Structures are given as structure tokens and as C-alpha cells.
Amino acid sequence: MKFGGTSVADADAMTRVVNIVRRQWDSQPKGSRPPVVVVSALSKVTDGLIRTAEFARSGDAARAAALVNDLLERHIAIARTLTSHQRAGDLVKALRAQFDELGAAVGLLAARREVTPSNHDAIVAMGELASSRIVAAAFQEQQLPGTWVDSREVLVTDGEHMVAVPDMDATCRHATQRLAPVTAAQQIPVMGGFIAATKDGVTTTLGRGGSDYSAAIFGACLDVEEIQIWTDVDGMLTADPRVVPSPRVVPHLSFAEASELAYFGAKVLHPATILPAVSKNIPVRILNSRQPANPGTLITADARREGHLAALACKRDVTVIDITSTRMFGAHGFLRRLFEVFERCKTAVDVVTTSEVSVSVTVDDTRKLDDIVKGLTEFSEVEVEPKMAIVSVVGDRLHDDPSVFARAIVALDRIPLRLVSQASSRRTFTFVLDDAHVQDAMTRLHNAFFAD
Ligand code: ADP
Ligand code: ASP
Ligand code: MG
């Protein structure tokens, strides 16, 4: 059971979590394995910690310290509301020790004006460490047998800081050693998502939104019956609710559809979440922690659903790179050199379209854009267009009905389309357009396909 940032934002939200977990366990047969609970940092805390790291990098020790202090106060206030007596004292002491250590580290980094990726991960990990400690204590206070487990002792990754890649074998070994005895003793492990460590014990993180991924990894290792992602919406919706007014809940999705939607911008699921679930064929359910009785979205190997479409997704603020061959190479040599540049710059490409002499790709990570352009310019002409967006139409059975594509194009009438592609999976149509047109494009597609 994974609870996101808004589901643990304050004492009321955490009390809802206690009730949801209690109801889950009460509904299970006596003596069955208790749930494992994974929590994100409190809403906005990861953003605050990233800002702290930025202040340290710019040498602004005073603002970094002030921010650490604000974060400590917010956590302590919640801890005091949820716990009492000795437990409150112990929890506040643990939080103070944690944030004091953070404050000292940030002070040193600010003096040096240097924050390495490893320092960055150590700083942002504080969010999940603190939230998970508070939730574990709240469980105990409410007579739910919660045991705090430091997820860095379970989740093992490589050393690629900020986007670390899990080592499933090592993680599953640790899960058996560290978590299985806790659940066997009828205790509920409470852990932070998103954070992990290398095999040498150096703190790493899985990338923004990575708590979903942590939960799926633990779930696969422990071979659980279901992976539940508790969040602030009623499930996977037919479109991003921040873009399209009143989208509907999709009751059932396939693993492939959910992966595709997450990859193309449906933030409710981290794009890697489905992988561990697929490996063990474990259903994933997305649920609303404010409306726990609602059925949510169930994700399984096959979607049992009427209709050809699952949902729409959009990924905003992407960059299109047009690369035109200066014809020094044959087409195959051109493509090889082109993708080698992206590989060297460790930058993933999302959408690709080609014509005889030119290739267009979209990237969402522009940190290495200058290096990419420099590398490509050695053998091609390059044009870069920022502020674009990818709009995707997703459904396993899209290809069963050839009229779907035509209806999408008609709905997008007069909106300039920069790139158009259909993935070989044939479960996604992708349109790349100016970010300024996203709302209009998504609303029109939603009206065309999901209007009552
Ligand atoms: P959490 O903190 O629980 O992990 P996130 O903010 O990461 O929550 O994800 C939930 C948010 O995802 C929703 O509030 C919504 O704004 C956004 N979202 C984008 N696309 C979709 C979609 N298709 N269905 C549901 N939510 C979506
Ligand atoms: N707290 C982390 C973030 O904000 C991870 C997560 O919430 O899933 O990105
Ligand atoms: Mg999330």
C-alpha cells in the first residue's frame, strides 16, 4: 500500500492512512500476511529539499538553514498532533536529530558552494525518512502494529544518483531478510518510497515520483496479492485533470496501457511502476485516499473494457530536435551516429519520426541539450524547438478500429501537428504539437472520444 505526498500531507491525511490500512488488514483473513506500507515525503517537502540543495550550491547558507528549520517545524507539529507522551518525545527527538544532521551537512556544502549528486540524494532522502517515521509512530499510537524500516537497507540500486536503477536480485534478497520476518511477526512494515542505497550503503533516489516504483519493487519481491497506489484522484482518469475539465475514471486498464499512459505523462503512476508488477503478474490498483470506498482503477494483464480507447495522456514542455543529414553517410550510418550522440549524452528519446534525409525526435530531459546539439552538428544540420508537447491516445484495441485515427485527426482540425506517429505496439497514436495548443487539443480529443 503506497501513499503519495498529498495522502500524508498533514495529521488529518495521516489519520486517514491509519484508517485505510486498518480497514485493509481487518478485511483480510485472520493470521494472513499484513500489508506493507510505503509512503512519500509530505506534500511539497521534496521540492523544499531540492530548493535547500540549490541554496547550498549557490552558497546561500542562511536561506538553506531557514528552509531546513521550516521543514523541521512542519514535521514536528504533525508528530505532536499524532503521538503523545514517551512516543511523541522519542519521535520529536529522532526528527530533530535527522534535521540537525541535514542542517550541518547543508551548512558545510554552502560553504564549499558544491552539491554533488550524492549530496543531493542524501538531502532529498530526508523527506521520506521523516514521513515514514511519523507514519510508523502514528500507527503505534493508534494500536496498529507498525514497524519502521529504513528502506535504504532493503532497496539496492546502482550508483546513478537521482535516477538510480534497482538491482532486483539484491533487493529481493534484502526484502526476504528484512521485511519477511516483520510481516511473519504480524507487524506492518512502514517504509519510505523513492529512497534506496548502493550496495556500499550510499543513499540514492529513484527519480521524481519514484515512490510508486519502490512500492511495486517491494510488492514483486514479496509476491504480494495486490499493489495499491493511494493518491489524490479516483484512479487513472481519461485525461490529465489539470488539462481537461472533468475526466472520467477508467475502471480497468491493461499493464501495457497503464505503462504507455505513465510514460506519456499520466503522472499518477511513475512510468517504471508496472514493470515489477508484470514480472510477477501482480494486479495494481489506483485508489483515492480521500474517497477510500471508491473502486479506483484496476490494472491487470488484460483489460476487460468496452471500447477501443483507454485514455489520453499529455507530456508537456518537451523539446523537438530536427536533424537533417548533410548526406555524408548512408541512411544506416546516419541513424547509428545520430543515436550514438543521445546514448553518449544519456538522454532518452520519446518520439521519433523519419523522412529520407531528416529525423525528428523529442526529448524531455534537456540537461545535456548543448552537448547533444554539438555532437549532432558534426554530421548534420540541427534545429531545436522547445515548448512543445506530446499528446497520446492510448488503448490496447486501437488498431481494431481504423476509424479512431481519422476521428482523432478530425478532432484536431486546424491545430498544427508537428510530428505524428503510431507506435509498433499499435496501442498509441502520438501527436507532437506546440505546448500552447495542448489544452485545446486534449479537450477536443476528450470530447470526441469520451463525451457522454
Ligand atoms: P502522489 O503524490 O499521490 O504520488 P501525484 O501528484 O504524483 O500523486 O499523481 C497524482 C496526480 O496525477 C493527480 O492529482 C493528477 O493531477 C495527475 N494526473 C495526470 N494525469 C492523470 C491521469 N490520467 N489520471 C489521474 N491523474 C493524473
Ligand atoms: N517524494 C518524491 C517526489 O516528490 C517521490 C514521490 O513522491 O513519489 O518526487
Ligand atoms: Mg506520484
Entry keywords:
452 residues; binds adenosine-5'-diphosphate; binds aspartic acid; single chain; globular; binds magnesium ion; eight-stranded mixed beta sheet; alpha/beta; 16 strands; 13 helices; six-stranded antiparallel beta sheet
Describe the structure.
This protein is α/β, with parallel strands linked by helices and 452 residues long. The chain has helices spanning 11-27, 45-57, 61-82, 85-112, 117-141, 168-184, 211-221, 255-263, 274-280, 331-344, 369-377, 403-411, 438-450; strands at residues 2-3, 37-39, 146-148, 188-192, 195-197, 203-205, 227-231, 252-254, 284-288, 297-300, 311-325, 352-354, 358-363, 380-394, 417-422, 428-434. The strands form three sheets. An eight-stranded mixed β-sheet has the order 3-4-2-1-7-9-10-8, with helices on both faces. Strands 12-13-11-14-16-15 form a six-stranded antiparallel β-sheet. It is globular. The structure holds adenosine-5'-diphosphate (ADP), aspartic acid and magnesium ion. Aspartic acid binds at residues 4-5, 40-41, 46, 127, 193-194, 208-211.
The kinds of small molecule bound in this structure are: adenosine-5'-diphosphate, aspartic acid, magnesium ion
Largest sheet, in brief, is: 8 strands, mixed
Can you list the strand order of the major beta sheet?
3-4-2-1-7-9-10-8
- Give the averaged pLDDT, no decimals: 96
Q: Uncertain segments of ≥5 residues (pLDDT<50)?
A: none
Compute the CA-based radius of gyration: 23 Å
Number of helices: 13
Shape: globular
What is the beta-strand fraction? 15-25%
Strand elements, count: 16
| Coarse structural class | alpha/beta
Write down the secondary-structure element order. EHEHHHHEHEEEHEEHHEEEHEEHEHEEH
Distance between the termini: 33 Å
Task: Indicate the percent of residues in helices.
Answer: 40-55%
